Amino acid sequence: MMGKCKLCCEEKELCKQSHIIPNFMYKDLFDEKNRMYAIQSEEGGIKQKGIRQTGEFEANILCKGCDNGTLGKLERYASLILYDGYPKIIEHRKSPDGMTYTYCAELDYAKFKLFLLSLLWRASISSRPQFKEVHLGPHEERIRRMLFGGNPGEQLEYPCLIMTYLNREDYPSDLVTQPSQSKVDGGYIYKFLIGGMIYIFFVSKNIIQERLTDVVINPKGELKILHMPPEMAKKALSNMLGIVWS
Ligand SMILES: [Zn+2]
Asked: How many domains is the chain built from?
């Protein structure tokens, strides 16, 4: 079908399937029949385990050039980094306060940052119920321009903090939850839990703290992925899944 692509804003032939969360992020989440187990929240706070055939996708939102070209390029790069252990320097370290983290270096700042922003942006433009809490308002157009223009912005412009509990083998690594919006100090943050990684996007400028500078990807290509201490992981999972974990 012809229509207006949401990324380039041109009248083009639109894709029948554009992934909102790229398929590669569901790696290891498929069972032997290639079905993905996902957790979805429902009204009234009851959650259930659902089975989906593939990752979330939507029709008629992006043209082929934007889907496969512009965003596809970012996805292919992020896939190498997140799932194929590509970074040249990657070490597990401990910070003075006892927090352990994975240190990544020599990343392509523009590609990785824009990939993260593309997740947030796609969730915002999506009309799928799974993404109903993600509304970027005026930030949606700003991020669209950054994506379309290949401009990753400054380090603390829409920073994304990445945490993981994959270091804990007793925690489920096969969950994808509905992204959630929270209000913190009068500003908005969005949390995505995808396969054992929690991506926290800080959208409102007034809540972006200087101390994120040390952690989120910087223009030199350094990034710290924080390992969540057990109690924190438990709390975060309980919150995001809406369950009480004993
Ligand atoms: Zn397009």
From this structure: 1
